[in-house]
Amino acid sequence: MRKNCIVAQSGGPTAAINASLAGVINGVINSDKYDKIYGAIHGIQGVFKKQFIDLVELSQEYNSSIYHLSATPAMYLGSCRYKMPLPDESPETYKQIFDIFEEMNVGAFFYIGGNDSMDTAHKLSIYAAQTGSDVKIAGIPKTIDNDLVNTDHTPGFGSAAKYIATSMLEIAHDTYIYDLPTVTIVEIMGRDSGWLTASAALARNTYNITPQLIYLPEVPFSRAKFLDDISENITANKNVVVAVSEGIRNKDGEYICASDASYDNFGHARLSGAGKTLEYLVKDKLGIKVRSIELNILQRCAGHLSSRADIDEAIKLGESAVKFTAEGNSGFMTSTTRTSDTPYLYTIGMSDLSHIANQIKTVPLEWITPEGNDVTKELIDYIKPLIQGELSHSFRDGLPVYMDIPHLVHRS
Amino acid sequence: MRKNCIVAQSGGPTAAINASLAGVINGVINSDKYDKIYGAIHGIQGVFKKQFIDLVELSQEYNSSIYHLSATPAMYLGSCRYKMPLPDESPETYKQIFDIFEEMNVGAFFYIGGNDSMDTAHKLSIYAAQTGSDVKIAGIPKTIDNDLVNTDHTPGFGSAAKYIATSMLEIAHDTYIYDLPTVTIVEIMGRDSGWLTASAALARNTYNITPQLIYLPEVPFSRAKFLDDISENITANKNVVVAVSEGIRNKDGEYICASDASYDNFGHARLSGAGKTLEYLVKDKLGIKVRSIELNILQRCAGHLSSRADIDEAIKLGESAVKFTAEGNSGFMTSTTRTSDTPYLYTIGMSDLSHIANQIKTVPLEWITPEGNDVTKELIDYIKPLIQGELSHSFRDGLPVYMDIPHLVHRS
User: Fold this and answer.
1) Backbone angles phi, psi at B322, to 5 degrees
2) Catalytic residue among B116, B145, B229, B312
3) Of B252, B271, B301, which one is at a domain's C-terminal end?
4) Which one of A136, A237, A349, B287 has the largest count of C-beta atoms within 10 Å of its C-beta?
5) Which residues of chain A make contact with B411, given a CB cutoff of 8 A?
6) What CATH number did the domain enclosing B133 receive?
């Protein structure tokens, strides 16, 4: 008898996470090993609560839903922020999950998410190994932050980078119009890694020299050096644009906007205000006309400007996860290995979950200029292939058409 | 001998102001009355400084430049914020300008801009009338705020409204993913009029009920009522999204974020922080998970998501200005009169500049619900035709291709 599968999504939204879901659905439909594919609502918590959607049925109901789903931002199945206990600490938690797996004749569980989700998948695979369960556990990467190790990059990053670079180019056009010195500071997401902020450099072209300054969390931030950098650039270029990571810290590791820091369940600091802090600094110390802009959550959920390269790859990583579990593999995350920048070529493989969870891939220091205020050509060449191509979005009444999510909407 | 023309742009950027410039260039090229069309760099100040670009030459140099220009956000010619003295106060200022007009054999001057720009155009036309000059003066409207009187709406508003509605829909997808009560507050531009904030309502569709609450500057804002509104909605809907204008004021006319207010040359208050202020209010008083998002300048310069209806109309308003001056008219702003919502039909005419400058068109109170926390169907029907259609953008290396602006970029 063919087994069924469960898929869930977790962590923060991206523009590509539903493309990986579409890939998993496609993979199961085209597999002779699996029968049904159920989507758990709100991540692993949907498994506990037995809240499932029959996704094969869904894909039959909507004719072209798989590709429509791929173009829809954020989690179609909803998300959760739930930290699983260790199997040894709470075996009953795991027993509950695996009892449900058995009850539903589940052969494979797919978790699409970032670092914390890979931690959950890893723990599930440990428990499966300990108890001799034959349920295969697979992680599928997603995170705009691009901070997962053992993969060339993560789906979601390319679309976010495309949105950031496009926004930076449009901000440049907005900035050059006045004939007086101006500083524009753009705060970009990225708590511990500077990949997203670095992608601002892709806005540079034959006429646009901005952003002239880029500050990543990988390099200790000095207020004095920053003010020197601004002073030097404003004389030469008049309109200066700065890309700055929300996570910049001084040499003692203190966030530049420490007063706003608080901590979430996973012990991550929640930040806001690096851009605002630097805006006030420029105003107070240099007296130059200055503004700050926070790109905020639109950089992760702007589905109308997804990267086709990103979406295509996210689908393939989902399909491959199904293929690999069907071949008997478990405890892995699908990952990409780049074999060439131009033309962009990559292979898809498996990375052991035990080597991924709770690690962070930061920008290599050799891809940051010695002055610590810009990125090198190598970093631009790395990002460039990931933002190529656009989706052909349907529009209705002037707005992009996304997949309906009635199961997530609470109405009075 | 055929006369020449000068065109300039002023005020804040929009996604459609270059489409009106393209319309003026088109109009002059196709006119048998005019010869050259010069673009003044940085608004009226470019006239004083005699900084001009030959735009006919430009359009010959770049094959399809007129349409390429239409798709480029912000001012191709640069902008200025220069308040003209009254002709009686400083006749020498006007003499200087009209001497340059005569020297360059100018028959018509076109100023594309908002309220302050129409003020400048109006003063120039007063001086021309007083001195018997035959230079025709025409204004062409643009402002994302949609606050000019005597025209159905202003170019630039439709594209901004499309960006805002799309962003609100994407924020909705980002908001529904968690299975816990959340409040998301989105701050939208609009100092004195709520048109832009109202356009957030267009994000609602068959599955998306957000934003549930919309607050415009036309209605006095009460913190107590706001907290009641949130409490009522959070119980019923779990995920509440609020659209709020940057310009909301209490019943005494004080901005909700008064501490941030300062004043620019035109006596307008510069605001920031209405969203942040309400975020802290919800957090402190209700203890609900809350975040605030400021759409910021991207709502005016996101050329990749322009409304085709908006761009097409902006071109026509530019072309018509040339036609009207060629017919001997002066001292007018081109304007639209709507004759039908569905299908959307309008005519283009002239509004006397003396009735436009320094007036503000606010949202009619009958288009705001009696509770003051939402807009009516009439307002949605008014905005809907203005966000229809998309441009076919060229992309290169993953980014939209805009017109080069080397004349605005200062390099070291």
Assistant:
1) -65, -45
2) B145
3) B301
4) A136
5) 209, 236-237
6) 3.40.50.450
Whether A13 and A122 share a structural domain? yes
Answer whether residue A380 is part of any domain: no
Would an 8 Å CB–CB cutoff place A240 in contact with chain B? no
Name the β-bridge partners of A106.
Answer: A4
Known catalytic membership, residue B145: yes
A392-A11-A138 Cα angle (round to 5): 85
Tell me if A378 is assigned to some domain.
Answer: no
Domain end call among B231, B266, B301: B301
Query: What's the count of helices (H) and strands (E) in chain A, helices before strands?
Result: 13, 15
Q: What is the pLDDT of residues A356-380, one digit of tens each?
A: 877 899 999 999 999 999 999 999 9
A146 shares its domain with A218 = no
In a domain, B16, yes or no: yes
Report CB contact under 8 Å: A399, B237: no
Evaluate whether A53 touches A77 at the Cβ level (below 8 Å). yes
A158 SS3 class: helix
**In the A/B pair of chains, how many CB contacts fall below 8 A?**
203
Give contacts of A168 with chain B, Cβ < 8 Å: none
Asked if B298 and A167 come within 8 Å (Cβ–Cβ), the reply is: yes
CATH code for position B289: 3.40.50.460
Do A235 and A253 fall into the same domain? yes
Number of structural domains found in chain A: 2
Q: Domain of A343?
A: 3-155+303-359+391-408
Q: Please give the model's pTM, rounded to 2 decimal places.
A: 0.95
A27 — pLDDT class (breaks 50, 70, 90)? very high
Given the residues A116, A119, A145, A147, the one annotated as active site: A145
Would you call B239 and A410 a contact, using CB atoms and an 8 Å cutoff? yes
Tell me if residue A262 falls in helix, strand or coil: strand
Which of A72, A162, A174 is closest, CB to CB, to B173?
Answer: A72
Q: What band does A64 get if pLDDT is binned at 50, 70 and 90? A: low
Query: Looking at the complex, does the CB of residue B201 fall below 8 Å from at least one CB of chain A?
Result: no
Q: Does B281 share its domain with B318?
A: no
- Does A326 map to a domain? yes
Percent of chain A with pLDDT over 90: 83
User: Distances in Å between the alpha carbon of B104 and those of A115, A191, B5, B101?
Assistant: 66, 57, 9, 5
Looking at residue A258, its pLDDT comes to 41
Contact A397 B405 (CB under 8 A): no
Question: Is the same domain home to A250 and A261?
Answer: yes
- Interface pTM, i.e. ipTM: 0.94
Convert chain B into a string of H (helix), E (strand) and C (coil). Answer: CCEEEEEEECCCCCCCHHHHHHHHHHHHHCCCCEEEEEEECCCHHHHHCCCEEEHHHHHHHCCCHHHHHHCCCCCCCCCCCCCCCCCCCCHHHHHHHHHHHHHCCEEEEEEEECHHHHHHHHHHHHHHHHHCCCCEEEEEECCCCCCCCCCCCCCCHHHHHHHHHHHHHHHHHHHCCCCCCEEEEEEECCCCCCHHHHHHHHHCCCCCCCCCEEECCCCCCCHHHHHHHHHHHHHHHCEEEEEEECCCECCCCCECCHHHCEECCCCCEECCCHHHHHHHHHHHHHCCEEEEEECCCHHHHCHHHCCHHHHHHHHHHHHHHHHHHHCCCCCEEEEEEEEECCCCEEEEEEEEHHHCCCCCCCCCHHHECCCCCCECHHHHHHHHHHHCCCCCCCEECCEECCCCCHHHCCCC
Does residue B297 sit in the same domain as residue B312? no
Query: Tens digits of per-residue pLDDT, A171-220?
Result: 999 999 998 999 999 999 998 999 999 999 999 999 999 999 999 999 99
A296 lies in the same domain as A308: no
Which amino acid type is present at position A302?
Answer: A
CB contact under 8 A, A398 and B73: no
